[in-house]
Amino acid sequence: MAAPCSPTGRINLKELSPQAFDSEILPVMALLGQPSYRLKQIKDWLFKKGVEDFSRMTNFPNALADLLAEKYAVSTLQKAEEKTSGDGSKKIVWRLQDGLQVESVSLPTGKGVTFCISTQAGCPMGCVFCATGRGGYHRNLTRGEMIDQVLFLWRDEGAGTVPNIVFMGMGEPFLNFSNLLDALEMITREDFIGVGERRVTVSTIGIPQRIREFADLNMKVRLAVSLNAPTQRQRSALMPGTSPYPLKELLSAVVYYYRKTGIRVSLEYVVIPGVNASAQHISRLSRLIRGLPAKVNCIPYNQTSQTIRPEGRGETTEQFAAMLREKISLRVTVRKSLGADIEAACGQLAVKT
Hints:
Blueprint: E1 11-12, H1 18-31, H2 38-48, H3 62-71, E2 72-73, E3 77-84, E4 90-96, E5 101-108, E6 113-116, E7 120-122, H4 131-134, E8 137-140, H5 143-157, E9 164-167, H6 177-188, E10 200-204, H7 208-217, E11 222-226, H8 232-238, H9 247-261, E12 265-271, H10 279-289, E13 294-300, H11 317-327, E14 332-334
Parallel strand pairs: 1-2, 6-9, 9-10, 10-11, 11-12, 12-13, 13-14
Antiparallel strand pairs: 3-4, 4-5, 5-6, 7-8
């Protein structure tokens, strides 16, 4: 398979798999009579320091820097816009090389920072409470476009700390499975970016077969499944893309993931007053998930002009979580909502330009 090229015709190093990266660069080193340790130096500049200009890689001979610049590209996106929330969150709009735009978010956590990364331009799943799903779907992101979101956020927003990385931005990660796996390998391998696997979370609407395939890789990456309703009928209404995936099969895959990895899955539940948050919903939900090797993360609903309106006042997210705790022995938490004032909170990412 030919190496992926940039619009300039140069091979883009960030679009290569880890194995292809090594096999591409080592012959170039040999061609110029350079020692093999130059490979590590290139990786450090690109993936540890976030430097994209070969002329700034100061421990290289000029001849090597010139040849690398002639043969290779390293950038996949450019910052188009940045917004800062009153709570310190930042939303970045990235312009891709074909003109499409995607968003990612940097979230302060008190102990560090979390980067929320997109995997698709738009999303085909159509969830009625998510602005991304209401805005339509354009294409999968490449592995390099996912990696660059991490690298640029870390360079600009997370210097001096090791971030947590959540694939919870725009898109359904498991519909971009191959590129996701390559990006995860780059992110977690110490000779590339080097973020520990347990600092990484992949969020999915719940595609059972992909969950099982992901479990078989035994990567020790955390998994979050968007549940959001206690019945198949309501879940399909709120999340049309889940219609082909029966709840029974999904929950069986959750158990399989735990058995293979030893990691409890986080069941995400967006609490929409008057829609999925009544006492009856709580009772049905508790029966559905009781005894699962999982935890429940209750998420406040962040409405936008593109998403559904709550149908009543109903329980707050905290009240919902408290009542659910009385029904089940699973750990139940409430996610703190950050970035809502700049439409950077859960369910609000949707490029408008």
